[in-house]
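Bumping with the actual sequence this time:
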Amino acid sequence: MSKAIERVVIPDFRQSPTVDQVGIEERAARFTTRSIKKETKVTGLKLVLNMIDLTTLEGKDTPGKVTQLCYKARHPHDALPGLPTVAAICVYPSMVRTAKKALEGSAIKVASVASAFPSGQAPRDVKIRDTKYAVSEGADEVDMVISRGKFLAGEYNYVFDEIAAIKAACGTARLKVILETGELVTYDKVRRASDIAMHAGADFIKTSTGKIQPAATMPVTLVMLEAIRDFYYDTGKMIGMKPAGGISKSKLALHYLVMVNEILGEDWLSNEWFRFGASSLANDVLMQLVKEKTGLYQSLDYFSID
């Protein structure tokens, strides 16, 4: 008897929920009014530091630059002992091997962008080879970009199939799917793209490449968190979230954590399920932690330049 073939039913993504723009923006704004002080603030700052993906994605990246960034990942600020490390280093596929060697023996992950980052303008077979190369070099995580042109043209099944193919190419590596929300423009499109990515196999959904403005915003992140919540209610599967770009201040990062806690709950408050794609955030967090310990602000000159 031949083995039965399981049929996968793809949802009609044209039916994704619409988003109340006024309601989302008002609710997101309320999270920024929360005051977090003293021990709770210190705990939150350390959590933020442990959720950061330190990133270098420039054409001038060198092995030396990546190695230095990996040192900072392992030693955020030696003058302040007991700090957690960051969550991951994010680099181009050609730098994965260098990062992997520099982080050997640590729990810090190596993430690699792939799929013709940041434009996504390449044939699918090129994107798959890009992904497989990153994984073969040792990437623990892959950050892919969706084909925004196809999405905006309404070719939702194409976007779904492409994400699913890249997920298969990842093997055991976790897949973060970048929506590039600044190019999607509307909250309804952000919600639809989030739904497509999660149903296609994303382990994380991510706002931005950091190359387009606006990048991460609290309202956009709230839309994506609500999509994750609804997907979890429907399937029982947890999906991670990564706002990236434009988050450089500790106070704002803490507001994001408040939002995550209220929308998704404490289970998402770890770097397994929530990340910040914001390298400049690390120094501000360190400056705030030193201030909480000593009562004095240090200049940013006391911290390494990423």
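The tokens above came from a reply further down the thread. The chain has one domain: 37-298.
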